[in-house]
Amino acid sequence: MDEANPEFLNKGDNAWQLTAATLVGLQTIPGLVILYGSMVKRKWAINSAFMAFYAFAAVLVCWVGWGYQMSFGDKLVFFLGKPAVALDEKYLLKQAFSGSFPNATMVFFQAVFAAITLVLIAGALLGRMNFHAWILFVPLWFTFSYTIAAFSIWCPQGWLSKLGVIDFAGGFVIHLSSGVAGFTAAFWVGPRAEKERVNCPPNNIILMLVGAGLLWMGWSGFNGGAPFAANTLSALAVLNTHVCTAISLLTWLLLDSFFFGKPSILGAIQGMITGLVCITPGAGLVQCWAAIIMGIISGSVPWFTMMVLHKKIKILKLVDDPMAIFHTHAIAGGLGGILTGFFAVPKLCRIFSGVSDKYIGLAYGLQNGRTSAGFKQTGIQLGAMLFVIILNIVMTSIICWFIGLMVPLRLSNEELDVGDDAVHGEQAFSLCHDREKFVTSRHNKVYDTDELSYVGSKSISSIQMV
């Protein structure tokens, strides 16, 4: 037998799964790195991008060290697997728990999902969290929160998985978790200074769109890889993802235009994200017309919570969430889970799970005379939501309290006032720093960046302060 091509290996499935994993990785590196670094004020560009960059690396190390087995390995208790490394060559070349490819492929695919979850949490903490506290937060939250939700919902041995919850690609495990955890952590870290919250324009809107575009296109791998095969469901999932997202974006733009008079690029990005998040729990399990309805809902309900309720509810005004992670991920992820419980097609669920008559959306239960089964599915979806919410509020609060015993959760007032230069000793846009001169490499001329006026020539390319 060819050890490099065992009988279980389907080369097409394996190639697609590695491609999908890479697309998800690109959503973070460089997608969210660029998005975060360009959406914040200039003085926080490096810190914001670096929080995402660090989290991606740290989670991957923790994942192969113990996290994968805690999420998908042998059961320790009903909600968690046994900690163990996933680095053994013999183990990595064996067939994964699902799919026609090796464990090595599955480990990498699931790793990038875990990593993006922590990076999404970072979006609620930008511009004031102590980076040393963030260094500790990432492995602790990953170990004591993410692995529990992943095992419970996604692992075949998990209690919610056995109960019959539907979470196609992470509406609960990733988006609801990150939204609730980010909001909770933001509460403990505290808000930015009032002047920072009132006046916080993006430092580069065009580059922000580049990051958003990588996030959108990368979602083909996010949802398309969920069936663990290059099959009809993966194709349906990709199509539904982009249709729902486009509808959600347009809905948000229409609401902005109608109520505020102008379409907003920031609003378009938020509408894009809510559409991507909302379709995720059921991307390959609903019909395309249902994806359109989900897009309308995901572009309007989070818009209402963000633009209207946020200004009226005290706890929402109190907690500083710079990237609106609560609205775009917690609200949209919860909506997606509920709507999936309503629109999930029994036939598609059977193809996905290989189990007959276990999963059915309430709409089809009412249509097919299986009303009790449909309401049961809705109850399971709501129960899973409640579990994820309680888990993340409790564990995130404990982790923040524990970290606070060792290092401050929040940067000092001096660091908050200065930004990147004080925290990292670096500046994202040094050529645009006040009273700085730079030389163009083409003409070797020195320019004062304040006035863009020619002030002399140099024989070497250099940057000088005046």
Automatic annotation (TrEMBL):
Pfam families reported for this sequence: Ammonium_transp
Where does it live in the cell?
Cell membrane
User: What Gene3D superfamilies does the database record attribute to this sequence?
Assistant: Ammonium transporter AmtB like domains
Q: How does it sit in the membrane?
A: Multi-pass membrane protein
Keywords on this record?
A: Ammonia transport, Membrane, Transmembrane, Transmembrane helix, Transport
InterPro entries in the record:
Ammonium/urea_transptr, Ammonium_transpt, Ammonium_transpt_CS, NH4_transpt_AmtB-like_dom, RhesusRHD
The molecular function terms in GO held by this entry are: ammonium channel activity
**Family membership noted in the UniProt record:** Belongs to the ammonia transporter channel (TC 1.A.11.2) family.
Protein name listed in UniProt: Ammonium transporter
Q: What is the native source organism of this protein?
A: Corchorus capsularis
